[in-house]
Structures
1.
Amino acid sequence: MSDVALKGAPASAPVPARVETPFRRFVSEFCESKVAVGGAIVFAVIALVAIFAPWIAPQNPYDLAQLDIMDGRMEPGTVGGAGFTYWLGTDDQGRDMMSGIMYGLRISLMVGAGSALIACIVGASLGLLAAYAGKKTDTVIMRLVDLQLSFPSILVALMILAFLGKGIMNVVIALVIVEWAYYARTVRGTALVERRREYIEAAQCLALPTHRILFRHLLPNCLPPLIVVATMQVARAIALEATLSFLGLGVPITEPSLGLLIANGYEYMLSGKYWISFYPGIALLITIVSINLMGDQLRDVLNPRLKK
Amino acid sequence: MTVYLVRRLIQALFVVLAMSIIVFVGIYGIGDPVEILISPDADQIERERAVAALGLDLPLWEQYLVFLGNALKGDLGRSFVFNEPALKLILQRMPATMELAFGAMFLSILIGLPLGLYAGLKPDSPVSKGIMAGSILGFSLPTFWVGLMLIMVFAVQLGWLPSTGRGETCSVLGFVGLQPCSEGLQWSFLTWDGLRHMAMPALNLALFKISLVIRLTRAGVRETMLMDYVKFARAKGLSRSRVTFVHVFKNILIPVVTVVGLELGSTIAFSVVTESVFAWPGMGKLIIDSINVLDRPVIVAYLMIIVLLFITINLIVDLTYSMLDPRVRLETKGT
C-alpha cells in the first residue's frame, strides 16, 4: 500500500509528500488512472458550464424576447438573425441549441445530484440504523430494500410519477425513492462489519447517545463504499431523469433538461434534422460517461479488498 | 424442496398484497378517487350515483377489500379512452411486448456470451479490451438516445430498416398497426416484414443486457479458469476446447442464466422506453400514453399486471436457480 502511494505521490502533489495524509494518498491513487483523471476534468468542465450557463451561454433560451422564430431549425454553423453563429443549430422555436444544452445541463445535474444527495442521506441513515439496531428493525428495513430492488428503477419511478404528475420536485422524489435502497444496502453491509469493532464497543461503554455513535463513529467508517455508490448513482439518476423526461413524465416543458431537449428533437429526426436531438444526447452521454469513469476508479481506490 | 416452494409462494403472496395496497393507496389515497375513476365529463348526478356505486362512502379498508375482490375477478376498471376493460387492453398488447423482450434476451445471449467468453479467455488481448470498453459504453448510454441514433442511421440515412411500428401482423379498422387482433395472438417475428420492424427495437432493448452478459461471462470465465477442476482437466490432457466448453462453460452458465432470467422482468419494464421510441404498440407504449392522458384505470391495471409478472418471474428464477445449483438447495435444507 505504501509503495503505491510513494510512486504516485510526487507526480500529483507539487510539495514532496512527506506528510502522508489519507486524503493525499487518496488523490495520488486516484490519479494513477489517466482515464479517470480525464473523466474528472471533463466532468469539472461540464459542471462549470452548467453553473455559469447564464453568463457564458450566447443567449437565454427561455427569454422569448431573445428568440427569433425565423431562425427555427437552422443547421449547425449558420449565422442567425441576431448576428451570432448557431454552432449546434437551432430547434423549432429558433432557440440556440448550445445555450439550450447549457441550461439543460443545469437542470439535469441539479436533479441528478440533488436526488442522489437526498437519497444518500435517507438511505445511509436507514442502513446504519438497520445494522446498528439489528433484529426486527433490520428485518423490516432490509425486506423493504429487497422489495424495492426486485423492481427495476424505471418501473418504480413510472409508478410514482403516474401518481404525482410532472414537475422537478416530483422527479426528485421519484428518484430518491428509487435510489435510497442502494445506499441503505451498501451502508448496512459495511456497518455490520464495523459495529463489531472495538471503537464502537468503547463508544458504547462511554454511554454515548445512539445518534452520536451512529453518525460520528459508525458513519465515517462506512464512507468509502458510500462514496462509490453515490458517484455511480448520480450518473444513474441523470440517465433516469433524462429517460423520464423523454417519455414526457419528467420535468415540465418550461424547465427542459437534456432529456426533454432530446424528446423535442424526436419528431424532426425523421426529416433528417438530426442536431436537435443529437447534441443534447452527446452532452448527456459525455456527462454520464465521465461520472462513470470517475466512479470506476474510485471503486478501485476505495475498495480495501483490492489493496495490496 | 416442497417446503422451500411453499415458503416462496407465501412470500410472493405477501408481496402481491403489499403492492396492491401501495397501488391502491396511490390511486385512492393521494389523488381524488372521484376524479380518477369517474370520467371528467360526468355531471353532478352521475357523479353522486357513481360515488355510491363505487362505494366511496365506505371506510378505506372496506374500499380496499372491494378493490381487491374486483381485481381477483379480473375487473380492474374500464379505460376512459378506449371504453374497454383495462385488463383486456393490456392483455391485447402483451404479445407485442413479450416478443420484443424475448427477442432482446435472445440477442443479448447470442451476442454477449461469445464476446464475454472471448474476453474472459484472453483478458489481455486488445480485442478483449475493446469489448470491455464497449460494454462500459453499453451501460452508460441512455437507451432512448441509442434508439434515436439507430433510427437516424438505419432508418433515415441508410433507409435499411423501418423506424416505427410492428410491421405485418393484422389490421383492425381504425387502429391499423396500432392494435393487434383480439382474435388469436399476433406475432411480428413470424413475418419477414415483422422481423425487419423488430430488429432495431430488439437490439436497442438488448444493448444493456449484452453488456451485462459480457461482464458476467467474463468474470465467470476468469474465476472458473483458476479452479482446481479446470487445472485437473488441463493436466489430464484434455483439449483446450473441451475444457472451455464442457468444464468452464457449464459452470458459468448458472449465474448467466439466473441473471438473464431475472433480467426478463426489467427488460419488460424497460421496453416502456424502447416502445415509445420506436412506436412499438406494446404494453409499455400503452402505459405512457395512458399516463399522458390520465387514463388511470389502465395505469392501475398495468401496474398490477406488471407486479404479478415480476413476482412470477422472480419465483421461477429462484426455483430454477435452486435446481441448477445444488448448494442453494442444501442451504435451505440445513436451516
2.
Amino acid sequence: MTKTQPDPAPAGGEGPDGTHGPGGPGGPDGTGAVSRARRILPVLGSLQAYIGLILIVAIGVITKGDVFLNQTNLTNAVGAFATRGILAVGVTLVILAAGIDLSVGSLMGFASMSAAIMVAHHDMPVWLIVPACMLIGAGFGLANGIGTAWLKIQSFVMTLAMMSIARGLDRKMSDNESVGTLVAGPDGELTENSESFQKLGTPDNNVLEGILGPDGIYFPVLAFLMVCVVFHLLLSRTTFGRHIYAVGGNPTAARLSGINVTFVIIAVFTLSGMLAGFAGPIDAAYSVSADPQAGYTYELDAIAAAVIGGASLAGGKGTIIGTFVGALILTLLDNVLGLNAVDDNWQLVIKGSIVVLAVVLQRPDLLQSIKNGIDRLRGGRSRTGPGRTPDKAQVPGPASAPASKETPR
Amino acid sequence: MSSSTRTLRRALTAATAVLAATALAAGCASKTEEGGGGGEKGAGDEFVIGYSQANNAEPYRAQLNKQLEHYVKDYPNLKLLPIADAQQDNAQQVSQIQQFVQQKVDILIVSPNEPAPVTPAVEQACAAGIPVIILDRTVDTDCYTSFIGGDNFEIGKKAGEAVVKELPDGGNVAELRGLLSTEPQKQRHDGFMEAIGENPGIKVVEEREGKWLQPEGTKIMQQWLARGTDIDLVYAHNDPMAIGAQQAAKAAGKDEIKFIGIDGLAIPDGGIRAVQQERMAYTYLYPTGAEEAAKTAADIAAGEKVEKKQTLGTVEITEANAEDVYAKYDMSGKVD
Amino acid sequence: MSSDAKPPLLAMRGIAKSFPGVRALKGVELTVHAGEVVALLGENGAGKSTLMNVLAGVHPDYEGVIERDGAPAAIHSPKDAQRHGIGMIHQELNLVPELSVAENVFLGRELRTARGTVDKKAQEARARELLAGLGLAVPPRRLVKHCRLAEQQLIEVAKALNLDVRLLVMDEPTSALADAEVRRLFAVIRDLTARGVGVVYISHRLEELEEIAGTVTVLRDGAYVGTRRMAETTRAELVRLMVGRPLGELFPRRPEQHCGGEVRLAAEGLTYVSQDGGPSLYGVDVSVRAGEIVGIAGLMGAGRSEVLQALFGHYGTRAHGRITVDGRPYRPRSPGHAIRRGLALVAEDRKGQSLVTANTVRFNGSLAALARYRTPWRTVHKRREREAVAGQIEALKVKTPGMETAVQHLSGGNQQKVVLAKCLLTRPSVLLMDEPTRGIDVGAKAEIHRLMDELAAQGTAILVVSSELPELIGMCDRVLVLCEGRLTGEFHRDPARGPQAGQEAVLTAAMARETVTTHHLRGTRS
C-alpha cells in the first residue's frame, strides 16, 4: 500500500509522475535510434508547453528572417490580436470555473461603439471613456453571472442570449452606422479628446514615450501584457484564484470547503465582461471607428486561444500563461502566413491544421505516448490496442498462451 | 414519476403531434391557394410594400433602408411596412418573404442575402401574384417584375481606369479583396483587371482577402509593408478596408501611397468624408437603388409598365465633387 | 461444493501483466469451482482489479494461462469473456442514469420485435422477472437515476445474470450498502451458487468474507501470496497475509471512556425537511463532548448523512434547531460559516464532494483553510501554506511522491488522508465524518481509526457516520441510531451509562418502526 496506486488501466490512466527512471523497461539494451530518442525526449519535455509557439516562430524566422523577427512586425502582429487576447483572458477565467462565455465578442462590440460615441458625439476624455466602458462590460458580465449562478441557466445558453442582446443594443445604439473616432474640431484639426483617444490603439500611436524606451510602446500590446500579468497573479497568487480552480474542478468540494461558489461564478463572469469592456475602446481606436459588427466571432478566437493554451472546457484546468501562448500562436501563425503571401484559401487549411498540430504537440501525455510506443517497438510484436478485438488467427494453437508470452525476457 | 406525470407527458406528446399535423396540413392548404390574391387594386388605393433586407447591420444597407423610407414618402399612396432584417440568414429571409406573402402585401421588395436559397421564396411570391422588385443582388429566376442593382464590374473598371490615369508610367498596385466567396468581390476584381490591362506597366504586386473588414485592412497592409513590397497604390473593394490600410500606411510613414475604395456612403464615417480628408484619392458610389425602387413601386401601383432590369450607374467621387455628392445622399434629418 | 475430481470452473495460472514502467501482476494463481464463492483479498493497488480486468478481457495481452472447465480459454477481449460466461460487476457502477431499469438490463442486447424496434414489453417483463429473483420490486420503467444506490447495485447484478453467466466477478459490491441490504445481496449470491455459478468476490470487509466466502486468495503488490479455506483461517492471519506484517487491534480505540469533556456541539430538535424526496430529519438531538467519538448508525435513507450536512450548513437555513457550538448559539448558514465556527466535514463521497482530484495535494490540503494563509493583499502566503500542508502530510503519514502530485494519483486511503488534512488545517473543534473508511484498504483503515482516536485524545469532538456496525461499535463512545429521520436509540460503550452497543441491539433500533422496515426492506426474504 506504500506506493501511489498503480491502477494501470491503459486508457486514460496517467501513471504517477516520475515512474520512468532510467532503469525502466527502456533499459540500455535499446537499439541506437531508440535510446537516442529516449535521451532527447526529456529535453523536449521542458519546452513542450511552448512547442507550438516555437514551431511557428521557427517557421517565421526561417522563411522571413528579419522581416518577421523585428519589433515593428511583432508589435503589429500582437497588436492586431490584442483585443481578442484580452477577451481570451476573461474567457479563461470563466472556462476555469467550468463555464463558457460566448458573449465577449458582442460585449466588446458594444463597448467599442459606446467608446466611439462617447468620443465622437460627447467629446469625452479618454480617462473617463475607458473606465466607463469597463463598467458597462462588467454590468453585462454581472447579468451573465446572475443568470448562471442564481437562475441556474447553463452558461452556454445564458451567454449565447447575451451575445444576441448586446449585439442588438449595439446596432440600435449606432443605428447600424459605423462611428468614426477621428473627430475634427471647428478648426479642422483633431479634437484634443479624439487625439488622445487614438493613443489607445490607432497604429503609429505609442504611449509612455521616454519611459519605456524612446519610442514608448503600442498601447494594445501593453494592455494585453498588463491584463495577462494582472490576471496571472490573480489566478496563481490570490485566494480568489484558488477558489476559481476549486469551483471549476469540483463545485461540491469547493462549497463544502467553505467557498462561496455563487460569488465566484458571478465574479468570473463580471470580470470577463469587464475585460470585454476594456477591449472595446482599444478596438475603436485600432479601427479609428466602431463598426456595428465589431467583435463578430471574436469569442471563438478567444475560446480557441484559451483551449490551445491548455484550458480544459470541463473546468479547473488552465493558466493565463497558456492562454497568452495560445493567443501568440494564433496571431503569429496568421502573420507568418501573411508575410509569406500564402494563398488566402490555403491559409484557412493551414491555420486549421497547424492549430491541431500545436495542440497535439503540447499535450502533457504526448511524451508518455511516444515512450509507450518506443517500448512497444522494443517489446517485439505487440498486440492490438486495448478494447479492440484481436485477430483470433494470431493466437497460436490449442496450447495457446497469449502471443506476448513470447516476449524475450 | 407518478402516474399523473406520465399521463401529462403523454398528453403533451399527443398535443405536439397534433400541432405538427396541423402545420403540415396548413402547408398543403397554402399551396392550393397559390395564384390568388393581390393585383386587383385601383390607382387611388393604398399600396402596401413589404421589404426584406439581407442584413441591417452593414452601413451600406442601413443607408439603403433609410433612403428607401425617405423616397417612399414622395408617393402618398405607398405604405412601407417595417423593414424585415434577415440578419445574414437565408432561412430567416425565406420565412420573412413567406410571411409577407401570407400578409398579402401589394408589392414585395427583396435584397437577397444569397441568390439560390432565396429563389424559391421569391417564386412563391410571384406565383401568389405579388409584383417583386429585386434590389442589389440577383436571384436565380426571372419571375420578378424588376431588378435594380449597381454594376460591380463597371465600378471595378472605373477604378481601374482611374489607376491607369494616376500611374501613367506604370506602377505597383496592391488589391484588398472582399470576401472571396461573394459575387461583388469577383466582379469588382474582374472589372479592375480588365481596365488596368490597358497599361502593361501597372502590376498587381500584392493581393489578399480583407473580408470587407477595416481591421483586416490595417493588419494586411502592415504585413505588406513588413514584407518590403514597394506599393504605389492600394485598391480596396470597399471603403473600410481602404481606410484601415491607409491608417497602417500612415503609421509606417508611407504617406505617398494612394488609396481607392468603393461604396461612397454619405455618413460621417463613410468614404466620401475620407476622400474629403484626403485619406483616399477616389471612392466610387455604389448606388443603393432606393430612389429607383420607390419610383418603380409607384409605377407598379399606377399600373404602368416598368423596366425588367435597371442597372444603376456609379459616381466617381474625388475631392472636387465630394461635398455635393454627400449633400445629395445624406439622409440625416430627412428620415425620422 | 463441487468435488475435486471435476476440473475447476476457472483456473488462472502464472498470470503476469506489465504496464510501461509498472509490473502490475506476476505469477498470480486463482481457482474457482462451480458453486463456490472465492474471496479475492488484497490492499488497494495489490492487483485485484488488474487481475479481474485480465479475466474480463480488458487487457488483450498478458502472460499465463486461463482455463475454463479444464480447457484453455483465450480471453483477449470483452467479447471472449462474455463467450466464456464471465460476468463482471464493477465497483463503480456502469449504469446509464437517464435510461430505465429494463433498458439498462438489456443495454447493448436489446430484444427486438418483428419490425425491428425495441421490444419494450418483453424487456420489461424479463427485467421484472430477474429483479424479482433478486428480491427487488423496482418497476422496470423507473429511470435508474431515481433508484437508490443499493437498488442500482442489484440492477447491476440483474444485468450480469441476464447474460446467463457461469462465473460472476463482484468488485466491492457492498461498499455502498447498509447491513440489511448486504444481507439481501448475500441471499442472492447463495442462490446463484446453489445453481452452480462460481463467484469471485472482492471486498475489504473481512467479516463479510467470513460469512459468504468458501476460500480466500490473497494478493500483495501484484504477487500471489496464498489461498486459504475460509473456515481454516483467522482474520489476523488474513490481515498479516495482506499487509505482510501483523496488525494489532483493528479498532485501536483506547479502552477508557471519554465523556467527561465539555460539550462542543449540542443540537436539540434538529429538523430538516427535504424538498426533493431525500431523507428528512425530524427533531433529532445530538451532542458531542470534547474527546468523545459519537457514531450515527442507521439504514440507507435513515438521515445519517443529513444530520452531518444539516449541521455543516449544507442545507443553509432550511435546517434548524437549537444548536450551540462551544457554548455559543449556532445557526447553520453555509459551509463557509460552519468552518468559521469550528466545524469540519469529511464528506461521504471523497471524489465527488471532498477533493478536486485533478489538482495537487497542496491545493486540496489548504483549500478549506486558505484564509489562514492570506496576506493583506489577499494573496496566498505560499511558504506558510506549504509548511502547514507538509506538517499535516507528515502527521497523517500521507504517502505521496510530493505535495505537487495530483490527488487522483493517490490510493483511496491516502486520498482520504488528504481530505482529513484539509479538515484538520481549519483547526476544527468538531469533526464531522461521513463514512471515513469507505472503500479504503485494511491498513489505511486502521490508520484512519488510529488518527480518530488521537484527535479525540487531543480534545476534538468527533461525530461519525458509518455503514459498518463493527467500526461504529469498535470506535465510538456512544452510538446514536436513526430511523426515518428520528432518533430511535442511544447505546454506550460503557454499560454503566446505559444500554451497551452491540450489533443486534443497534440493528433492531435501526429497524425500529414497522412502517420503516416494510418500506425499506420490501421484497427481502429475511
